[in-house]
Structure formats: C-alpha cells, structure tokens
Write a structure and sequence with these properties.
- The chain has 180 residues and is an alpha+beta fold.
- The chain folds into two domains: 30 residues; 128 residues, Porin.
- The chain is built from one helix and nine strands; from the N terminus they run αβββββββββ.
- It is globular, with a radius of gyration of 21 Å.
C-alpha cells in the first residue's frame, strides 16, 4: 500500500509540474496577431558567428567567420564581416555591406545581403529570446546580374547565430537599461 501511495504522489507531482511548465511556456508564445514580431523587434546591432560549407565544383570550402550587423528597425541593414575559407582569411573586416530584411508576425523572417564583390545571399531566420538572438540559415546565393532575394541558386550550407550587443544601453527597447 505504501509503495502505491508513493508512486501516486510522484505521478501527481510530475503531472502538476508538467502542467505548470507547459502553461509557463505557452505564456511566452507569440500568436501571429500579437504585434510583437515586427521589423522593429531586431532594431540594433548583433554580433554573428558564421559556420558552414560553400559547395563548389572543386570541392567544399569550409567557412568560418564573424559579422556585425546593424538592423535599422525599418527593413534595412548594414554589415561588416571577416571570414575564412579553408582556413585562408582576408586582411581584416570588409567594407560596409548593405541589405534588407523582414520579420514576419510569427518571428520568422529573411534577410538578404549584397557583398562588396556583387555576390549576395538570402537567409531565413528565427528571432528568439525576445529579440536578443537571431538564428539563421543561408537559403540561396546569387551573383550578378541576379539580385536578391536569392533562391535555389548556388549551393551553400551555412548557418549563423547573432546575439544583440550592448544590452545595458538599449533605451529604445523600453527595459530601462542605461537609465541611471
């Protein structure tokens, strides 16, 4: 009898914990009509870590890099980056590159960047952590005369994770940070 009571108690505690956790999780989900997920959600500067492969006729190029991307809150972006391909890097950071982006109602989105040599990439992304992180995957590359959005052109397997910079000083987010 005592063993059955202990088992029942463990089951009830587990069931209650599962309900509390699922209720807590659903409180953070943003329905498509919430108005939370907009281009303005990711306004600011993000540091990205880039990792993947660029598939070429001569074999894959292993890509590693970092980028600093500034989203203007209205669908425009600028970026500087430094990358290596097969451990061969350039002299430093690129000159500023430009592009555009859009955040959908469900906090997914896409952005395209035109690099200084005229090539471009388009990524799909998910905005997480209340806009403080952006997880991306390249879905297309294109070269002139083609222009973004780039879909189905090129063969890349590249992803990146961007994190918001200088959280303490973001007054426009309404969190009160930086107000002393």
């Amino acid at each position: 009898m005592k063993g059955n009571r202990e088992k029942l108690a463990v089951f009830v505690v587990g069931a209650v914990a599962a309900m509390v956790l699922s209720a807590n999780y659903s409180a953070y989900a943003q329905p498509p009509t919430s108005g939370f997920c907009t281009d303005g959600l990711i306004k600011g500067t993000y540091g990205f870590v880039v990792d993947g492969e660029i598939l070429t006729p001569g074999g894959p190029l292993l890509l590693k890099g970092v980028a600093m991307t500034t989203f203007d809150g209205k669908g425009g972006l600028t970026q500087i980056d430094s990358t290596t391909a097969n451990a061969m890097g350039g002299p430093g950071f690129s000159a500023p590159e430009t592009g555009s982006y859009h955040v959908n109602d469900d906090c997914t989105g896409s952005f395209s960047i035109v690099f200084n040599d005229g090539t471009a990439v388009t990524t799909n992304f998910v905005v997480t952590t209340d806009g403080f992180e952006i997880d991306t995957v390249v879905v297309g590359t294109c070269t002139p005369p083609n222009t973004p959005p780039c879909t189905g052109q090129g063969a890349d397997s590249v992803r990146s994770i961007g994190k918001k910079r200088f959280l303490r000083f973001e007054e426009d987010r309404g969190h009160g940070w930086g107000k002393e």
